[in-house]
Each structure stands twice: as structure tokens, then as C-alpha cells.
Known about the structure:
By secondary structure, the protein is α+β, with helices and mostly antiparallel strands. The protein contains eleven helices and 13 strands. The chain folds into two domains: 3-153, CATH 3.30.1330.10; 168-336, Phosphoribosyl-aminoimidazole Synthetase, Chain A, domain 2 (Alpha-Beta Complex), CATH 3.90.650. It has helices at 3-7, 10-25, 72-90, 109-123, 177-191, 199-209, 215-223, 237-248, 263-272, 276-282, 298-308, and strands spanning 33-35, 43-44, 50-60, 93-103, 129-137, 143-153, 168-172, 229-232, 251-255, 289-293, 312-319, 325-328, 334-336. Strand 1 (33-35) and strand 2 (43-44) form a beta hairpin. The protein is globular, with a radius of gyration of 21 Å.
Amino acid sequence: xNRSSTRDSLKTIGEFGLIRNVKRQWPASxxxxxxxxxxxxxxxxxxxxxxLLISTDxxxxxxxxxxxxxxxxxxxxxxxxxxxxDIAAMGGTPLYLLVSIAVPVRVPPRHVRELxxxxxxxxxxxxxxxxxxxxxxxxxxxxxxxxxVGSIRANRALTRNKAEIGDRLYVTGTIGDSNAGLRILxxxxxxxxxxxxxxxxxxxxRRHLRPAPRxxxxxxxxNRKLAHAAxxxxxxxxxxxxxxxxxxRVGAEIHADALPLSSQLRAFARQDKTDPLNIALRGGxxxxxxxxxxxxxxxxxxRVSEQTRVPITCIGEIKPKAxxxxxxxxxxxxxxxxxxxxxxxxxx
Length: 348
């Protein structure tokens, strides 16, 4: 090990040196922050007429991510978007972030800095401020936990339990791309050989590594009072439709031929000899929005799509609970909507 790498190590700079580095890298400037990083707790000014939105996510090496096929900056970006997307699904404005990290001492400090740069890059367009967190050593894996704080006008947040019978179901963007990108990365990593990415692979991998949070769309749905219920697509379409149905005590019909599948996903599925519909239904981490809205608001929903330049597609409708959750296939046949997303603590 050379002298510079010895000097630049977590063992050398220590926990407080790492915290100082992060504070310099991501300084807070919001007038609503009274005390940020450096005290036992952050002190924030309350905003009149608003409610707070708070969400947290845990990412554990070898379970949620693998740095063999993504960079620390990619990991940071995806961690930031996962939290931003939770605020987007509620229709809120993201404000503050707390980041807690446990890192093995063998990890170079530059990797930690890059991880924070990825989080910061995802959050910067929305003026999110870093106000605290915690740091620790870890015996083997990187552990990352983000807590995001947002706000919304009082009693206006979108939730999973307000869908109404007769609502149309909408989804933003295209779905299944992230899962396809992950499959490509895992396949090439398993083969242990360099590869030249095709245009299709490049698109799908980027959709996995650099998803986009739909903050503006969520805000417009709330501000224009268009939607009844919403959720972000983190577990997969089929599973997340189930979350809305369970929360709202309703059923749903999804039209298979209406699902927005990218041409790149279809091309990948042909090459991989898999069903793109199956990837779209079960694949997670697209971080698109799934929401319900009354049929009378259809044209206004399409205007949101035009304004944000993000496709919004009607994929079905909300039914009575007794209807269950069904997938309508071309030709009129229907089948039960599968619900096979990944769940922790359950053997696969």
C-alpha cells in the first residue's frame, strides 16, 4: 500500500473525519434549518399549514445491492431516488435527508465520498438538504439507511387507502425496465467477462442504476386534486396494485395490452426468451407512480403528462373487493393477478 492510500483510509481519518468530509461536501443553507449536522439532533422551523412526510429505507450489501456491478455513486443515486420516490407518491415536497452508514474499514474513503455524491446528485434538483445521520464501522458489508423528511399542505397527501370503485388506474413512464437492467448486470457478472453493451442493454441498465423520481407529477396530482390514491412502484406492479387494493378494500382489473412496455424491454425479452409481461408485472424498483383517479379527470391527467413530458398510461380500473385482482388478457380471457414480488424473511 502506498503512502497516499495509507493516509486516505477510514482507519486514518476516523469517524469524525468522515463526518467533517461529508459536511464540507454537502453544506446546508436552508433558512428553515436552525441546527443541522454537528449536534445531537437537527432543529427545524415548522411551516404553517403543512404536514410532515417522513420515510426511511434500509440498504444492505449482498441483499439490496452488489458493488461488483454498480459504482458507489450509482448506489447513492438509487438510495436517494428510493426515498424521493416515497415523497413523490404522497404528492409532497422533499426537504431534508438523514443518512446513516456503516462501512467496513477496508472500504476506501473515496468510495464513501462517491456514495454521498450519488445521493447528493439525486437530491440536488429538488433542493434537499442533508441535516444529519450516523456513521459506524461494519464487520463485512456496507449498511445504508436514509430517512427523508418532506412536507405537504395539511390533509392533502395521497395515500394507498383512498381508491374508489370506478377509478381508473394509471402508471407513469414504462415498467419492467429496471428489472431487465438488473438481469443484464447479474448475467454478465456471473459470466465474469467484459462485455460491450448494446444500445438496448445500455438503456435498460441505466433505467436500473439511474431511475428518476416523479416528484413533479405527484405534486401536480395533489395540487389539481386529480388523484384519490397513489403508490410508487418499488415492489413491482402486481404487488403494488395489491397494496392499494388491500389498503382501500377494493379489487382491480389490469389490462395486459395497456401496460406501457418500452421497445427496449420487448427486445430484451425476445433475446432472453422471456415474457416481457411477466417482467413488467413482477419486476420492482422502477420508481414510477401508480395512482387512481376518477374517470372524469382523464383529460386533466393527460395534461399532466403533456406538461411533464412523462407518459402516463391508463392500465385498468378499480373494481369492488369481491371482483378480486384480475389481469385481462388479449382475447377476453382473465386470470388472477400474480403477486410474487420479493419479500424479506420469506424463503424463495
